[in-house]
Amino acid sequence: GYQMQMDEAPYGPGLCDLCPADSFCGGGEHKEACQPDSSSPKGSKYKTSCICNAGFYADAAGSCVECPVGSYCPGGLSQKKIACPVNSNTYGPGKTELSDCYCDPGFAGENPEQCSLCPSGFFCPGSGTVKKCPDNGHSGTGASLCECDLGYEYKHMDDTCFRCPANFYCPRQE
């Protein structure tokens, strides 16, 4: 990948420069930029030298597309999107590595490849976090929230179940 200089260079016109990064040079004066969200090393000759950046993958048409939610795209030679493991997801698009995946609500674990169902008596709000149900609260397996016992109301601010005020009806709540 070289490009011929046509301007006045220190040694005169007609010299060749190494094709700059993020472009490809097929020879002569012809230099083309890589498509958006892709890059190539210096000296690239062919369009195929332009590969999608991390956070992007090559679609069927060969365009670099932002990695969707639920996948990660390392970029580089693979140029593909990789789905997060079962029962895990990502916060937003454009993620680049497996560690960007987290366990879904209702599942426990810090490793997205080992998300397990949240145990009974606990709740798992997401990101693999496991919290014990508050006093006067309970949950079944796989819960993302606890349910308060009859006569108690859930307070979201601090994940507590407090007694329903006198003369009020408080149905079971999550």
Give an overview of the whole structure.
This protein is mainly beta and 174 residues long. It has no helices and 20 strands. The protein has a two-stranded antiparallel sheet.
Oligomer: single chain
What is the overall number of helices? 0
Report Rg: 28 Å
Structural class label: mainly beta
Portion in helices? under 10%
Secondary-structure blueprint of this entry?
Layout: E1 2-4, E2 16-18, E3 23-27, E4 30-33, E5 38-39, E6 51-52, E7 56-58, E8 64-66, E9 71-72, E10 82-83, E11 88-90, E12 101-103, E13 107-108, E14 116-117, E15 122-126, E16 129-132, E17 137-138, E18 147-148, E19 152-155, E20 160-163
Antiparallel strand pairs: 1-2, 3-4, 5-6, 7-8, 9-10, 11-12, 13-14, 15-16, 17-18, 19-20
Short note summarizing the structure:
The chain is mostly beta strands. It has strands at residues 2-4, 16-18, 23-27, 30-33, 38-39, 51-52, 56-58, 64-66, 71-72, 82-83, 88-90, 101-103, 107-108, 116-117, 122-126, 129-132, 137-138, 147-148, 152-155, 160-163.
